[in-house]
Amino acid sequence: MTTSTTGTTTRTGTPGPVFGRGTGHEQVVFCQDEASGLRAVIAIYSTALGPALGGTRFYPYATEDEAVADVLNLAKGMAYKNALAGLDHGGGKAVIIGDPKRDKTEALLRAYGRFVQSLGGRYVTACDVGTYVEDMDVVARESAFVTGRSPDAGGAGDSSVLTAYGVFQGMLASAEHLWGTPSLRGRRVGVAGVGKVGRHLAAHLLEDGAEVLVTDVDRDAVARLREKHPQIAVAPDTDTLVRDAIDVYAPCALGGALDDRTVEDLAAKIVCGAANNQLAHAGVDKALADRGILYAPDYVVNSGGVIQVADELHGFDFDRAKRKASGIRATTARVFALADEEGVPPAVAADRLAERRMADVGRLRGIYLGS
Predict the structure, then answer these.
(1) Are 90 and 50 in contact, with CB atoms under 8 Å apart?
(2) What is the SS3 assignment for 175?
(3) Are strands 188-192 and 56-59 parallel, antiparallel or unpaired?
(4) Among 76, 93, 104, 324, which one carries the catalytic annotation?
(5) Which residues form the domain of 262?
(6) pLDDT tens digits, residue range 324-338?
(7) What is the rounded distance in angstroms from the CA atom of residue 259 to the CA atom of residue 66?
(8) Which of 15, 52, 165, 345 sits most deeply, having the most CB atoms within 10 A of its CB?
(9) How far is residue 143's CA from residue 40's CA, in Å, rounded to a whole number?
(10) Distance between CA atoms of residues 95 and 103, nearest Å
(11) Do residue 203 and residue 341 come from a single domain?
């Protein structure tokens, strides 16, 4: 279906025969506003557990096909993440095609907000790569279905705080499963990416008594972190970091961090980080297991941020959201236990747990129709 109004276009449909992908997504919406330059894609993977919740990524994709592939993958990941986080939300994601440093304007963000509003609550947005709290405040001027807003606008603010806290909880569960003690004290942890989340994670690790080694393409980010924590060591690049004598590897930048070469080179016995979609392709999880490396599935341990923004929809309470994010440790332990019981890698076990909840609860709800 295609509808147009004064330079604004929406194409919406269900993947499969229409898009030739057979992905199982409920709905994909292509959004274009010529006046503001907006080109965006919103993907809803599932609303079986409730309205789809997921952030908006603003990124200079080379082609629309590349943007579609990314948003479909991210939306599915959000469905699994929200399910295992125990939230009454399905999974969705949006991407805005463009350079956020050059193309982001109030008019563009407000046009995007109107598209989000047009979905009637089937999709609730938040921050992601290239978008920030102040951007969500602008989007919220046109839509009631926005989280990750500033405290002044009634929101929860920066979700990276609880994202990092949740990753740390997952790391404690990993340490207990592998070494019998829920602590990183005396362990060497390599953190690749010290931006929004990585810098907070590094602080948690230092407080727990870990030795921290970091790297980031943004040298200013590394310098700012070392100003606050001068005891942190720095690796020149990620390749060097993964080959270093580390106990835990924490990918906290963009996806695809775990490919065949990285797995082969990796010295760590645990991988637990904040980045989304860490496995570069199918089979990497098995390669990790074959090498005796314990992988804490990314969408399990990095769900603290979505727990925070979901809480915002009920009137944000940081302590309440933090208590819920503390449950990431127990959820990670459940994943490892199921993996051992069924003889599968943790990534497979996590998917099975998420799919069971979507099936068991979703059959009671049917398809969410919006408000």
Answers:
(1) yes
(2) helix
(3) unpaired
(4) 93
(5) 160-352
(6) 999 999 999 999 999
(7) 19
(8) 52
(9) 16
(10) 14
(11) yes
